[in-house]
What we know:
Oligomer: single chain
Order of helices and strands: HHHHH
Distance between the termini: 65 Å
Strand content: under 5%
Amino acid sequence: MVHKERQKNSMPSRSKLWATGLLLTAFVLGGVVGGAAIAVADRDEGGDRGSRRVSYVDRLQTELTLTAEQRASVERMIERRNEAVHAVWEESQLRYEAIRSELRAEISEALDEGQRTTYQQMIHRSDSIRAARRRHRNHDNE
């Protein structure tokens, strides 16, 4: 009996998987919200997404009184890591999309036909708003 309980407890339960998915979703959404907050702050400072690195370096310059050599070195460090940061961001976005699709499918299965139609309309509106925001951000960055 004890052996069966250990086997049962070694496999993640559906609720644990659900909680893990929600935690990951919260993490990704936190990143998105944080990124949006930074973009808004940069825009309020008259910058754009491309100047965020400069804003960060400017803050370091101001608070640490960097020498010209140190500032150039920090800028190179940030530039070298830029590709890795972008890759992590892309990977997390893909994982988020996969989890969101799975969740949407599960929710859809739990609904009756009328609710499913309304739910699909809600998803379409949400996706349209997200796409419009993405286009707006891309336009602002040009």
